[in-house]
Amino acid sequence: MFSVSVRDHLMVAHSFHGEEFGPARQLHGATYVIDATFKRDGLAGNGTVVDIAAASEQLRAVVAELGYRNLDDDPSFAGINTTTEVLAREVADRLAARIHAGKLGPEALLVNGISVTLHESHIAWASYERAL
Question: Which residues of 81-98 are buried (b: 16+ CB within 10 A; e: fewer)?
């Protein structure tokens, strides 16, 4: 299995519902370092998994859709705690949709899976992995 990873960062505001979240129930900001990893069994004819520039561009586009917003105001997250885990899945799903739409180029259509890791800090992170 081959893989290529690209990195960006995401800044959001949000709050959580549930006693277990303590002070995070209040509106607060979060900055995540995002690693998106694209995996496939073999390489394209040009020797790549995906075009790194295209992968970076599409990750940046997903970050632009989510970033600098209060996620509590986004109807697509109504009633959902936008935890690090949930946001990792959201980024992965949005990248998968972009692959299926051809936005990462034809070689990306043979990607087997995507893994997205959101680093909340230097000591805590969450990942989501999905097949394509």
Answer: bbbbebbbbbbbebbbeb
